[in-house]
Amino acid sequence: MPSQRPLWRAFLAFLGPLLLTNILQSLSGTLNNVYLGQMIGVKALAAVTGFFPILFFCVAFAIGLGAGASVLIGQAWGARETNAAREVAGSTLALGTLLGLVVAVLGGMFAVPMMRALGTPPDILENATRVARIGLVAMPLVFIAIMFGSMLRGVGDTVSPLFMGIITTVLGLILTPALIRGWWGLPRMGVTSAVWGGVAAFMIALVWLVLHLQRKNSPLKLDLEFLHHLHLNPRLLKNVLRIGIPTGVQMIVVSSTELILVRLVNRYGSDATAAYGAVNQVVNYVQMPAVSIAITASILGAQAIGAGRVDRLSAITRTAMLMNLLLTGLLAVLGYLLSRQLMGFFITSAPVVETAQTLLHIMLWSLVIFGMAAALSGIMRASGTVWVPMGISAGCIALVELPTAVIASHYLGLSGVWVGYPVAFCAMLLLQVAYYQGVWRKRSIKRMI
User: Nearest-CA neighbor of 12 among 369, 371, 316, 308?
Assistant: First the structure.
């Protein structure tokens, strides 16, 4: 992390491409949902939405591994130890690929019982199962893409994942409608068009990334030396998993809660499921700066620790909190002002649009609160402190959000499900602040690699 630049400029230089990458990833999913909702219908959107909690659950450990690797790579890069960074990357990629293959095999075999266990409405069960099976079999590809993006950020490269996101989004924009309509001699894939288009786009983008890293002589390029590191190294993986497992557990708690919530939503019928999917699309965008800022704080914090500049951690935290307030807050305001139009992108049924708009209004503001808590958790993760911040976040999701949603839905109906989010996020911020101020800031911080 260059010390000659003001911190806010270094922060923005890292955050900008990262945020654009995350927006493009969400945009790809959004466009696919728009195509499905507008070109096929609400039930097609509901079928794809029903698979989302399983997808989230499956990628949890890939995200966790990527987070753990990015912290260690960031510390190694801050200390200018390139070979150590490559060793961490190779070992993490090997483990992630194995996990992806396991998910692909099990997912292909058990897609039907998984979708039934979610309580998927009968009128969309067959299509939802087809989407789930294809998505799960393609999981090794998704795992590799997630981990590569995280590891490149550890060495300060947020531009390469950005271009990869551009390629994926543009190809998805072209392939999904082509597969829906059967353009250019392509087969008509119906509801599965989006997932097939996504698989093809990911494959092409990954090939481009490998060639691009070779051309730019990236420290993580896939040359013969890197291939020598492509094996399970217990010593390195111990520290990767030290960070990755808590992060993955948190993701699993979140996804498990979503699985329960989607079952709760499914009881209200396929229109409610479609509204859930439309709201989630908008929430993903508003939440994107918060997540990106937390990742930036974690990576810049790790690089500062590796460079022996622990004194910069407080400044990084303050910068992250301010940027979250400005960026996430701005998007939340826009979300309220444009809520009807935003819901109309995904849904053609006027009553469903009204329902989705109401649900969005209930919890949108609380994403700013979530961002503050995420930023604190991110800066603590940079030092390897993950279990308590994870416990706070996961505990608030499982023990505050879920019971609140269940109880509130009993009295308020479908709207009550969304009441759980702001209640949980407020509790999360209060507890993260208490631990950050009362415990973490008083600890001695050392490199992990």
Answer: 316
Which residues have CB under 8 Å from 156's CB, separation 6+? 1, 14, 77, 299, 303
Domain boundaries, the chain: 7-442
Query: Phi and psi of 221, rounded to 5°?
Result: -65, 150
C-alpha angle with apex 412: 409 to 415, nearest 5 degrees? 75
Helices 387-396 and 414-438 sit at what angle, rounded to 10 degrees? 160
Give the pLDDT of the chain (449 residues) as one tens digit per residue: 444 567 888 888 888 998 888 888 777 777 777 777 777 777 777 777 777 777 777 777 788 888 889 999 999 998 889 999 999 999 999 998 998 898 889 887 888 888 888 777 788 888 888 888 888 888 888 889 888 888 999 998 989 999 998 998 899 889 888 988 888 888 888 888 888 888 898 899 999 999 999 999 999 998 888 888 888 888 888 888 888 888 878 877 877 787 788 888 888 887 888 888 888 878 888 888 998 899 999 999 999 999 888 989 999 999 999 999 999 999 999 999 998 888 887 777 788 888 889 999 999 999 999 999 999 999 999 998 999 999 999 999 989 999 999 999 888 888 898 899 999 999 999 999 999 999 999 888 888 87
If you search the block for the tokens 């692909």, which residue do you land on?
104
Tokens at 123, concatenated? 């009128």
User: String of b and e for 37-65 (b: at least 16 CB within 10 Å)?
Assistant: bbebebbbbbbbbbbbbbbbbbbbbbbbb
Task: Show Cβ contacts of residue 117 under 8 Å, excluding neighbours closer than 6 positions.
Answer: none
Q: What is the pTM of this model?
A: 0.82
